[in-house]
Amino acid sequence: MNLSQMNVELFRLINDFGKEHTYLNSTFIFIAEYMVFVLGLMALIFWFTRRRENRIMIISAAIAFIAAEMIGKIAGKLHSNYQPFAELSNVNKLIEKAVDNSFPSDHTILFFAFCTTFCIYQKRWGFTWIIIALFVGISRIWVGVHYPADVLTGALISIVSAFIVSFIVPRLEFIEKLLSLYEKGEKHILPGRDKSREL
C-alpha cells in the first residue's frame, strides 16, 4: 500500500465513524466550524489579563501562525489536492465547503500554531492545548473536508514554526519596545491595575 492509498484508507476510517456514530456528528461539526471562535476568545482573554508573558505568548502565536500559513501556501504550490468530498464517492460530508486546494489544512495550521505556542508558555496546561488542536484536526477529517495528510502536514509546519518563533520573539528588543508603547496608550484607554510587568 503506497502513501496515497494509506491517506485515503485512514480518511475512510475516520470519516466513516460519522456514519456509524451519528450522535457524535454535531460535536465534531461544532469543533470543525466554531472552535475557531473559542480560540479567538481565549486569545483575547489572555491578552487582556494585561500580563506581559501572556502578551508575548499571543504575539508569538500570531507570528507563528503567519509564518506557518506562508509555508503552507508554498507547500500548496508544490502539491495540491481537492477536498475528499470532491474526489471520493460516498463521503460523509457534514459542512459546506467550496472546492479548492485542501493541502495543507488552514484550520490545523491555525490551531497548532496557537495551541503549540500556548503549550510552550503554559506547560501546566500543555497537554490540554495539544488535545484541543488534535480534535480540531480530526474533526476536519470527520466532516469530510480534509485528508489526514492535509492535517498532518499543517500540524507539523505549525509545530516547528511555533517552537522557532517562541524561541526568537521573547529575545527581540523591538517587540518589547512596541509592547511597552502599546501598554502606555492602553493605560489611558483602559485604566486599571498594571500587570504588564508581572510574569
From TrEMBL:
Residues 61-166 form the Phosphatidic acid phosphatase type 2/haloperoxidase domain. This is Bacitracin ABC transporter permease. CDD domains: PAP2_BcrC_like. The keyword Transmembrane helix applies. Coiled coil: none annotated. Keywords: Membrane, Transmembrane, Transmembrane helix. It comes from Sporosarcina globispora. GO terms for cellular component: plasma membrane. The keyword S-adenosyl-L-methionine does not apply. Gene3D superfamilies: Phosphatidic acid phosphatase type 2/haloperoxidase.
